[in-house]
Amino acid sequence: MSARIVIFLLLNFGALAIGGFFTGKAVQAEWYLSLNKAPWTPPGWVFGFAWTTIMICFSLYMAHLWSNSENKKLIIGLFILQWILNVGWNPIFFYFHHVTAGLVVISFLTILIGYLLYSYWPVLKMKSALLLPYFIWLLIATHKKTKNHLVD
Questions:
Q1: Contact at 8 Å (CB) between 147 and 129?
Q2: Cα dist from 35 to 23, 138, 145, 148, whole Å
Q3: What is the pTM of this model?
């Protein structure tokens, strides 16, 4: 089990590193600073702390899911799709400034994480709570992006 946790940690933190490449300077750029953000948008340091926590919990969740799932091909396919959507959102939104495409990507990512939470709750039971930080963060972010998109 511990080897699986390490593999998922490496893959998930690799995704964060790639995303950070596109996000790093962009959050200080005029384009991002001029966006109509919710008044409750947290300060920058919260994002690093939140994503670190989310990826640790998600890695533990995936290691447990992998161990308890009979359909490993589906699990790895869902993980790969999640990874692509998670990594892809950053350049779409922060680098290319495609707000609508970013909204579509983050919406699909939110639906996918919700699907994992709902579908595998009977298998993992309370261990599914490890997925809640990711799902809740995405719900808030998707709501914020939807609100921004509709206002723009």
A1: no
A2: 15, 19, 10, 8
A3: 0.89
Q: Is the domain covering 2-151 a CATH 1.20.1260.100 domain?
A: yes
- Residues with Cβ within 8 Å of residue 140, at least 6 apart in sequence: none
> What pLDDT sits at residue 97?
92
Q: What's the CA gap between 38 and 111, in Å, rounded?
A: 22
| pLDDT the model gives residue 127 | 97
| Radius of gyration from C-alpha coordinates of the chain | 16
Residue 137 near residue 86 (C-beta atoms within 8 A): no
Are 137 and 54 in contact by the 8 Å Cβ rule? The answer is: yes
Q: 38: number of CA atoms within 13 Å, CB side?
A: 13
* CA separation for the pair 101, 124 (Å, rounded): 33
**Structural domain boundaries of the chain?**
2-151
Run means of pLDDT, 10 residues per run, the chain, 152 residues: 93 93 79 76 84 97 96 97 96 92 95 98 96 94 62 48
Cβ–Cβ under 8 Å, residues 19 and 86: yes
In the chain, what is the straight-line distance between the N-terminal and C-terminal CA atoms, in Å? 47
What is the spatial distance between Cα 131 and Cα 16, in angstroms, rounded to a whole number? 17
